[in-house]
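Thread amino acids onto this structure.
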């Protein structure tokens, strides 16, 4: 195709069409001189017009269509007619294969050099150009250029090597730190795919005739099945070497960690192995250290709740607990609190297993059971180190609970987590673990219970009419509010991998101790404590907090009911 050209310079055109003023153009040009960015990007950054507004204008001037590809199904094989490295470099995506021609979406259709390169790469096919938003392009890149094909190809290649070599020869070839061995390339593809899809965990599970590689994305496992089941031992071996584990020990579970650099991300990997019927199962938790810590404001906690939590964590002494099941975001909330408390005037000590994020100025201690460096032992020593604030990774046993509560009673702020279902049962669990009621009642200041729910994908969100069963549940949960609210649900699109969900948000309940609750705990009166807690005017249960998100269109009715069922079953 002949490259489309603007009849005038972009800035002059925008002024001529009264989209921006001449003064705004001059300011953008001055800013462009210092940043070196394109004029369009500079105008958007300065807030003089929106990305969509600019691209629709460009499309009109160039006489090419503007396409919204967020909900368009683009076949993977069509997109891959243009290799990923060139697609990302040129900000171009093949949207449709029309035989002799291809429909190509670009975020900068005035990039004549890029168009010339595309014509050379896609020859003899001709190019039909469309304008698309850059944000939608990058979302499509992540979904379409997954590493699934690479994983399958390397797995097949590795199995061939396995068949042709003895296990000893194959093992020695894996100790190649340069990553040239096929197993290294396979694992690199697995990690790249996981990071690209924002997975929190990778599961490698050998079965009798196949190998499952599963990723937990937004709290839900997604599975990739490989028929090359023989390669599982080779993958586990390489991972053990990376984590510094004993490669000869296959009968006992092992834990380790290592760090990777993947696509500009520094990924801390916590690895756990476990012997299963057909080999060893491996689960790896991925922590993106380069993403930085979330502040309390960024966790999804409502502003009013953030203010109340801040009040509790800035008190000079007492215990604040964060509770919930594994994977509910407790550590993220605790580190958000610690990052706000981290000041030169405060001595902070943490006791963790493992240390998940490294924080400056904070004295972080890694528990090590092999040398009897336990939570209670470190906590006892920490109290002699003149701390202002102590964070205990988890209240695991009676001794840790006892020392933590006494520390809170003697002038320290103690932050910790507990694996309990909700805020009310957490205080009672401390007593069940052997702590005296008077000690819990005197030391405990607040309990934050939390869960994570999936967000509705903004690109494909649409109105949702609850089913009769859902209406019954919602009516039982929220009364009249349930009938007055409007709900949303994702229909599935390229951006969310057709799941209808993208990302997660925290759901929180905060229980602040008052005199009647403290008195009930001191008397070991569980029934009265529960009654007083539920009667607290500012206490909103988890289920109602989740319903509020659904009523705002942030999450779905399905997610609210899943949380309600989880809480009910746990109780």
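Threaded sequence (571 positions):
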């Amino acid at each position: 195709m002949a490259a489309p050209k603007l009849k005038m310079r972009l800035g002059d055109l925008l002024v001529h069409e009264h989209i921006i003023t001449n003064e705004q153009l001059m300011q953008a040009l001055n800013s462009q001189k210092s940043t070196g960015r394109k004029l369009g990007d500079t105008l958007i950054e300065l807030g003089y017009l929106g990305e969509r507004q600019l691209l629709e204008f460009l499309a009109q001037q160039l006489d090419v269509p503007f396409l919204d590809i967020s909900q368009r199904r683009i076949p993977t094989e069509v997109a891959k007619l243009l290799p990923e490295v060139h697609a990302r470099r040129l900000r171009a995506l093949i949207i449709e294969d029309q035989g002799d021609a291809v429909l190509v979406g670009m975020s900068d259709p005035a990039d004549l050099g890029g168009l010339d390169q595309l014509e050379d790469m896609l020859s003899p096919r001709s190019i039909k150009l469309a304008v698309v938003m850059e944000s939608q392009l990058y979302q499509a890149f992540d979904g379409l250029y997954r590493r699934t094909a690479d994983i399958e190809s390397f797995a097949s290649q590795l199995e061939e090597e396995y068949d042709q070599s003895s296990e000893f020869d194959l093992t020695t070839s894996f100790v190649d730190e340069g990553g040239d061995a096929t197993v290294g390339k396979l694992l690199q593809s697995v990690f790249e795919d996981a990071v690209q899809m924002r997975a929190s965990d990778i599961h490698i599970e050998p079965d009798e005739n196949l190998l499952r590689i599963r990723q937990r994305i937004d709290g839900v496992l997604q599975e990739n099945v490989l028929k090359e089941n023989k390669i599982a031992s080779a993958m586990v071996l390489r991972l053990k070497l990376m984590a510094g584990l004993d490669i000869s020990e296959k009968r006992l579970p092992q834990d380790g960690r290592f760090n990777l650099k993947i696509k500009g991300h520094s990924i801390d990997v916590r690895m756990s192995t476990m012997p299963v019927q057909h080999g060893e199962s491996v689960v790896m938790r991925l922590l993106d250290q380069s993403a930085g810590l979330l502040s309390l404001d960024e966790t999804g906690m409502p502003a009013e709740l953030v203010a109340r939590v801040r009040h509790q964590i800035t008190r000079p002494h007492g215990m604040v607990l964060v509770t919930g099941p594994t994977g509910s975001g407790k550590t993220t909330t605790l580190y958000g609190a610690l990052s706000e408390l981290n000041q030169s005037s405060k001595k902070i000590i943490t006791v963790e297993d493992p240390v998940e994020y490294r924080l400056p100025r904070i004295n972080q201690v890694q528990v090590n059971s092999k040398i009897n460096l336990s939570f209670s032992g470190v906590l006892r020593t920490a109290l002699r180190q003149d701390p202002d604030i102590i964070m205990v990774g988890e209240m695991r046993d009676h001794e840790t609970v006892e020392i933590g509560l006494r520390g809170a009673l003697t002038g320290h702020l103690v932050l910790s987590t507990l694996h309990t279902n909700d805020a009310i049962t957490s205080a009672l669990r401390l007593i069940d673990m052997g702590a005296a009621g008077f000690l819990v009642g005197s030391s405990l200041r607040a309990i934050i219970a939390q869960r994570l729910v999936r967000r509705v994908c903004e690109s494909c969100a649409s109105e949702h009419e609850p089913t009769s069963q859902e209406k019954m549940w919602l009516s039982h949960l929220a009364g009249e509010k349930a009938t007055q609210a409007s709900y949303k649900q994702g229909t599935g699109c390229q951006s969310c991998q057709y799941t209808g969900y993208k990302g997660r948000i925290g759901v929180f309940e905060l229980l602040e101790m008052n005199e009647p609750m403290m008195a009930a705990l001191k008397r070991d009166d569980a029934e009265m404590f529960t009654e007083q807690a539920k009667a607290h005017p500012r206490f909103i249960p988890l289920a109602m907090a989740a319903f509020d998100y659904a009523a705002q269109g942030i999450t779905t009715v399905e997610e609210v009911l899943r949380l309600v069922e989880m809480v009910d079953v746990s109780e």
